[in-house]
Inverse folding.
């Protein structure tokens, strides 16, 4: 690695000069600050900031610029590999929109890949998110779908929310739903948001919380801080 | 099955060269032992065991297809 010295009024400016020189974003540079700049008073006693910078070598560099375009391809490749290792003959399609990567699996074994209450699909999605996050260092939202399970699942959740809402209105008593992950809870909250007679809140600890649906009028209903 | 766990683990850790997976086959159940570098232990377990749980879920799905049972053990 070859270090070069750069100067500027401030360290930021010096770093900027370094970036211009190497034609690289600061993330790709190894930067060492030699002295912090000091603006001085009326040009007296001012000191320039000095840094040393060199191109960072190693894998980070190679995947820096063109990485984004490759993310979809990479996600597809990793997921296909995972599925084939699971013994699945499946086709994967990927599209990237902003920070959302959507992958669709086409497999004769959809039921198995979805799992009980979508567990397996959830696990695949979680692991793929982790793996890609490690490789790209960027926040990415990965969504895996199979046989439009997501849409069906969302519909089922909305139905469940509406049904529970009806029940609460009829009986005047709160209804507690089964523990759900944040994404599913959000769907429930949103489904009942417009109903002024009902309130919803999440209860419990950790990732899987229960949603409680309760009548809005009753004041003695749980008044803990309504978590998201 | 062994390769599946190996692939996932190697993609998650900082030291993929120190990942080793052993499969001990039983009549119905096989045990898959995963060993990683000490610093990487947290990475394969995850927050509140979430990563380990996800790997077990996937392993279960894969083993169902092969009409077997597999258990994942993470070894320190």
């Amino acid at each position: 690695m070859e270090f070069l010295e750069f100067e500027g009024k401030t360290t930021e400016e010096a770093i900027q000069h370094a970036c211009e020189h190497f034609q690289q974003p600061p993330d790709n540079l190894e930067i060492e600050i030699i002295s912090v700049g000091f603006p001085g008073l009326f040009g007296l006693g001012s000191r320039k900031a000095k840094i040393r910078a060199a191109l960072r070598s190693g894998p980070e560099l190679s995947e820096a610029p063109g990485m984004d375009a490759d993310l979809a391809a990479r996600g597809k490749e990793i997921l296909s590999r995972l599925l084939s290792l699971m013994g699945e003959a499946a086709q994967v399609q990927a599209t990237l929109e902003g920070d959302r990567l959507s992958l669709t699996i086409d497999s004769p074994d959809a039921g198995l890949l979805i799992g009980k209450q979508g567990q397996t699909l959830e696990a695949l999605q979680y692991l793929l998110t982790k793996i890609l996050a490690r490789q790209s260092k960027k926040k990415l939202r990965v969504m895996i779908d199979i046989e439009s399970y997501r849409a069906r699942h969302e519909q089922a959740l909305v139905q469940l929310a509406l049904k529970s809402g009806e029940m609460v209105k009829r009986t005047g008593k709160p209804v507690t739903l089964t523990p759900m992950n944040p994404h599913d809870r959000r769907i429930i909250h949103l489904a009942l948001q417009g109903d002024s007679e009902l309130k919803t809140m999440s209860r419990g600890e950790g990732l899987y919380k229960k949603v409680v649906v309760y009548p809005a009028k009753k004041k003695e209903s749980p008044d803990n801080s309504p978590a998201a | 099955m062994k390769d599946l766990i190996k692939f996932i683990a190697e993609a998650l850790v900082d030291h993929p060269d120190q990942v080793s997976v052993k499969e001990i086959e039983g009549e119905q159940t096989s045990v898959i032992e995963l060993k990683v570098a000490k610093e990487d232990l947290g990475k394969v377990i995850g927050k509140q065991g979430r990563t380990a749980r996800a790997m077990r879920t996937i392993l279960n799905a894969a083993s169902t297809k092969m009409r077997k049972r597999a258990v994942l053990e993470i070894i320190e």
